[in-house]
Amino acid sequence: MYFGDASSTTDLKLEPIDGKISPSTSYPLFSSSTSAPIKSYILHASSHSELVEWVKVFHRVQKDTKAQTPISRLEYAYNQAYEFQTLEDLASFLPASNIKLEKQDIAYQMQGPPIGQPNQSDAILSPSGNICGRTVSTYPKRDGIHRDGDPMADYFQIAVYPKYAIACVADGCGWGERMALAAKDACNGFVHHMQHAKMDSKNFNLKHLGKEILMGIDAANMNVLDKCKERDHDHPGTATFLGGLVVRETNGWLFVFGSIGDCKAFRWSCKKSRVFDLTAKKNQRLTNSASDPGGRLGSLPLPDVRNLFLSEAQCDEGDILFLVSDGVHDNVDASSGGLSPKEISRKYPEKWEDIAREEAHEILDKWRVGKLREIIMGKSDGKGDAILPSVLIERVLGHCINLTESSRAFLENPENRKLKLPHNYKLYPGKMDHTTCLAFVVGKQ
């Protein structure tokens, strides 16, 4: 939805602003008193250089008028996409129970992989063994040295405090350094915002935390744009994102998180030896295109909020939360694994196209958590074997690498150099991608 006519912006006189536009001053979009021509100019910005110009306009308008408190880019995008709903509406389902998140020194921090890292990165393991993260590439080496898609464009980050933890994962949308930087900048922006958010007041509650997480996602988006400007890139990269906090409340541990795009979060229950998909029914792809994640940060003029959501999940101490990019969950998908609906159950038809979209998602979600349980348990059939984050990641990423082996072999064959991979999931199952998993034990540093 656009305001006014783009041509009405041509008579605007842009006045430069003294000093640097800091991230904190560039978060706002505009207030309700901003004129329609200014709004139109903002919404028609097609590059970062234009973005800088409309920020200048915005600051001039703010200086010359008694404007109300401006809303963020993320909130405005959501407001327009979903009939004027606000970010507070997204957090309305959370209880207003108080939580106390005292400012404390950080206990441990992990992030990776290193930007520009080719091929594979080694797993990063905390000294306690309770946190592990790794990114690998399942793309082929057509020249025998470099993998398609280098550098890896996923990123993960976790900051652990004595009574809570901040964790996130991002997936750059496409190949190249811009996408890799977008994923890193999104994670850095989110974690920085949550580390400096005022969450230690006496009346701070879960609703406030939910809104703060959404503002953290807005900060992630703005950090992608601001860092793009600092590097003198005209267009920022884009990234999907999932991030949140693990906190202790009255009934135990709670993971409150937000997501935009198609990253996923799962919980491994140590008591039940089961996997729970915390994002089931919430961030399903909205089209049949594997290249469309549904939403993303960094897009201009506004972030794509088609499947922005906020959620929460109860956890038991000792459970393992693992956050993944689509390079993982696309390879624990029955359809891309070459299975027909009838091979899952006789009551289903032969083709996925013959099943309604919502029903197909339910079938695939149920199959996915069962497959993940099988992968994580490995050869063990008992409940007594301890599953550590490093073991979980080794088994899950190992599965993704093994499943896509036939695809890599086809593309690495010199005789097939000019051919595309046949679209046959029976012969070439899975999806090659940058593949990330961040896993950590709930309640233990």
Distance between the termini: 46 Å
Tell the overall outline. globular
List how many beta strands DSSP finds.
Answer: 14
* Helix percent band: 25-40%
User: Which residues sit in consecutive blocks of at least 5 with pLDDT less than 50?
Assistant: 1-48, 57-69
| Beta content | 15-25%
* Major sheet summary line: 6 strands, antiparallel
The average pLDDT score comes to 82
Order of helices and strands: HEHHEHHEEEEEHHEEEEEEHHHHHE
- Arrangement of strands in the largest sheet: 3-6-7-8-9-12
| Subunit organisation of the chains | single chain
Structural class based on helices, strands and sheet pairing: alpha+beta
Count the DSSP helices: 12
Task: Report on the architecture of this protein.
With 445 residues, the protein is of the alpha+beta class. It is 31% helix and 19% strand. The chain is built from 12 helices and 14 strands. The chain has helices at 23-26, 36-43, 48-64, 73-81, 87-90, 177-196, 206-230, 326-329, 341-344, 357-377, 389-403, 405-412; strands at residues 28-30, 71-72, 108-112, 124-125, 131-137, 154-160, 164-172, 239-249, 252-260, 264-269, 274-277, 309-315, 320-324, 434-441. The protein has a 6-stranded antiparallel beta sheet, with helices on one face. A 6-stranded antiparallel beta sheet has the order 4-5-14-13-10-11. Strands 1-2 form a two-stranded antiparallel sheet. Strand 6 (154-160) and strand 7 (164-172) form a beta hairpin. The chain is globular. The model is unreliable at 1-48 and 57-69 (pLDDT under 50).
